[in-house]
Amino acid sequence: MTADSFPVPPSLSMEPLSKANHGPHPLLFKHLLSTLLEVLRLSTLALAISLEAIFILQKWKPIFHFLLLSIFLFIFIIEPYFLSSTPVYLVDFSCFKPPDFCKAPSSLFLENASKIGSFDKKSVAFMAKILTSSGLGEETYLPPALHCIPPKSHQQESIKEAEMVLLPIMEDLLSKTKISPRDIDILIVNCSGFCPSPSLSSIIINKFSMRDDVRNFSLSGMGCCAGAIAIDMAQNLLKVHKNSYAVVLSTEILSTGWYPGHERSKLLLNCGFRMGSAAILLTNKNEARKSSKYRLFSSVRTQRSFDDKSYMSAVREEDSEGKIGVTIHSDVFQLFGEVLRFNITILGAQILPPMEKFWHGVSTIRKRFFEKSREIYVPNFKSVIQHFCLPTSGRSLIREITKGLKLGENEDEAALMTLHRFGNQSSSSLWYEVAYMEAKGMIKKGDKVWVLGMGTGPKCCSLVWECLRPIVDESSKGPWADSIDRYPIMTAESKGLFP
């Protein structure tokens, strides 16, 4: 593997895949069934209007009008109301702004790396190439433990880092929303690489003296997708526990994941990952609708860990010298493309207009059974969604997802600028993208925001949020307060310095 060849993901398409590549997949039938149901509902509406016109022209008795109106109300109002799930509202969220002494420009990173005895010149040169083409700017952050020479990666330093990134955002979220720690009913903390005992969620409960019956969970080993998965998990818990508050804390502890060896496939994580954390307050309380920023409109979670090749695409393991690191295989982004196609097929079946689903279904059947050389019709997600938060796992991945979904030039702005300003912050990056859009005044009442999380496994989780109220005065607070006026910037890629 070379710095020039990694990472370059293949183009993404909307073609649904077959399970284990054998025969048509159930997702195809689910997609077609959803389209048929939409067509049936519209046909019923057309029939009801036609019958009403006949009743009026024929001057039928009022009882017939009443019966027709009852059928209409049941199909289009009463039935959807009873079948709809418990609404989940996002009251507010906070993102961590690391202190300036944690800044790690490329020159400082490489200077320190050259002083660490475990790296040879080839390893430092390789990391330099990765940084040059990564899309990271010069103001990203590393924890204090990784500024030491050699870096400190023992347990106590990782706990200090966890407290550094989690406690301030929890306090900020409580201050913003004016709730007490004892009001919280559900607490979920996700961190992929660091799983201490007591757990991270227990640390939060202890520091904030939370209730003895708070339902707490710690998610580990789920990669960059863990933040979105934690929201999906909170949604399911809120369906069961009525009138509750749920807090999700997302972060990645970098000091425990530092790799001090020579294997290039393991050095990649040293270069791209940077400090970050986010805290999100969710609720199912009816009275929260007026004050909340967003409502969870749709949630879709998919994974491919059942497939051995996918399962082994990114693995934490020892190298030949016994040093632990995460091996990133060169085909990981191809596998990301596969799990993403699964995910957006289901999401499209849920949220796209009937005609978009119809034409996509027709083109899928045509390619699978008749004209294999024809391209699959890519539905226009912009007909439903106004804003896109894409994974910040690298500039190449952002570019390929944007291309695969046929998005415009501006739809990847939040992802590219977040990558440039803060780096890849794993599961919390998506919330820095939402914060960027809010600070720029992009999100309006009624807009929908697609938050797309992807991680090792591989797994994919889509969250679609509907904005419930005007978002104002966000440019002067949050992680972008001191830099939002400088963005968007002209990146090296847009200048044509990189292909």
From TrEMBL:
Keyword Acyltransferase: yes
Catalyses which reaction(s): a very-long-chain acyl-CoA + malonyl-CoA + H(+) = a very-long-chain 3-oxoacyl-CoA + CO2 + CoA
InterPro entries: 3-ktacl-CoA_syn, ACP_syn_III_C, FAE1_typ3_polyketide_synth, Thiolase-like
Chain segments annotated as transmembrane: 39-57, 64-83
Gene Ontology MF terms in the entry: fatty acid elongase activity
Residues annotated as domain Beta-ketoacyl-[acyl-carrier-protein] synthase III C-terminal: 385-466
Family: Belongs to the thiolase-like superfamily. Chalcone/stilbene synthases family.
Known EC number: 2.3.1.-
PANTHER family named among the record's database cross-references: 3-KETOACYL-COA SYNTHASE
Domain FAE: 86-367
Keywords, sorted A to Z: Acyltransferase, Membrane, Transferase, Transmembrane, Transmembrane helix
Protein name per the record: 3-ketoacyl-CoA synthase
Any Gene Ontology CC annotation: membrane
One protein family per Pfam: ACP_syn_III_C
Pathway: Lipid metabolism; fatty acid biosynthesis
Gene Ontology biological process terms in this record: fatty acid biosynthetic process
Zinc is among the record's keywords: no
